[in-house]
């Protein structure tokens, strides 16, 4: 029999997938690498070709971004807001997801429906009602707090971040808990562990891959959030995304591009570091739910 010398359909599909993946990787890596390169250029180097290699490492751009543009202070604010928001979110969402996924009680179906309905609410649509609500609460507290309490408060912003992320987080964690067998809970019950002890010592450690996914996704959401931060922090306190846009506007007007790109690197670097740290756990979390025991 004569062998078919033509390229098989399977090979063509694989070749197409490789080409698409390589193209996607280039589309992501090139802009990021260009920003990192531009952040260490002197301002005069921007007037030549934009793809030129920098003559040296001009770290003064980062100094100007950190000190003169207050990006260091904004970085600290973003760390505080994101950290508090994640702690509040996990503390509320984990028990709620476990209870809603493993127990049936009066009103559990209604609560699950409310959680799923929250998935369709875009935060951008409720920014103004949230701001007006907090403004009214501040008016009530005017005799106690002269400068207000709910507006221009990093902790309040963090709590609102956590509240807006609850529906997605509870839904994701509930879906994961539903895939876990009940054998572990039954074994813990036989050993004398109560519901709370079983939840903390048995079920939560088993849900670690899903928790890592939740932390990573919500970290990116909180870290890069702009609209709520701009609306609820109208004073001097800013988070990184708001501070970055202010920096970009100021440096573009002054035709000083180095600090602008240095500010972009300051915003991107923590997310890249976090992704590198949790990459293995993230892959496990994406695949473990589909494994049948």
TrEMBL record:
The chain crosses the membrane at residues 12-36, 79-101, 113-134, 154-177, 198-223, 260-278. Its main location: membrane. It holds the Pfam family BPD_transp_1. It comes from the Bacteria. InterPro entries: BP-dep_ABC_trans_perm, MetI-like, MetI-like_sf. The keyword ATP-binding does not apply. Residues 75-278 form the ABC transmembrane type-1 domain. Keywords: Cell membrane, Membrane, Transmembrane, Transmembrane helix, Transport. It is found in: Cell membrane. It is a multi-pass membrane protein. Belongs to the binding-protein-dependent transport system permease family. This is Carbohydrate ABC transporter permease. It comes from Virgibacillus siamensis.
């Amino acid at each position: 029999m004569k062998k078919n010398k033509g390229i098989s359909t399977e090979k063509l599909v694989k070749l197409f997938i490789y080409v698409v993946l390589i193209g996607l990787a280039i589309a992501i890596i090139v802009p990021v690498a260009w920003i990192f390169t531009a952040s260490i250029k002197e301002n005069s180097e921007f007037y030549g070709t934009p793809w030129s290699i920098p003559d040296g490492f001009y770290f003064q751009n980062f100094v100007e971004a950190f000190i003169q543009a207050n990006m260091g202070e904004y970085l600290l604010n973003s760390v505080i807001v994101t950290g508090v928001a994640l702690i509040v979110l996990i503390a509320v969402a984990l028990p709620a997801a476990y209870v809603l996924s493993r127990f049936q009680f009066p009103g559990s179906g209604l609560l699950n429906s409310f959680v799923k309905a929250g998935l369709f609410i875009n935060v951008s649509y409720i920014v103004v009602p949230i701001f007006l609500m907090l403004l009214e609460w501040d008016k009530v507290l005017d005799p106690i707090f002269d400068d207000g309490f709910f507006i221009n408060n990093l902790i309040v912003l963090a709590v609102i971040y956590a509240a807006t992320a609850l529906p997605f987080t509870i839904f994701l964690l509930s879906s994961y808990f539903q895939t876990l067998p009940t054998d572990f809970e039954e074994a813990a019950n036989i050993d004398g562990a109560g519901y709370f002890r079983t939840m903390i010592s048995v079920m939560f450690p088993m849900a670690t891959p899903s928790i890592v996914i939740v932390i990573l996704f919500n970290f990116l959401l909180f870290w890069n959030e702009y609209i709520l931060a701009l609306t609820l922090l109208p004073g001097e306190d800013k988070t990184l995304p708001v501070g970055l846009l202010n920096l970009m506007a100021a440096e573009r007007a002054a035709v000083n591009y180095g600090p602008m790109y240095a500010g972009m690197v300051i915003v991107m670097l923590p997310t890249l570091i976090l992704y590198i740290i949790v990459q293995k756990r993230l892959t496990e979390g994406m695949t473990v739910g589909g494994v049948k025991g």
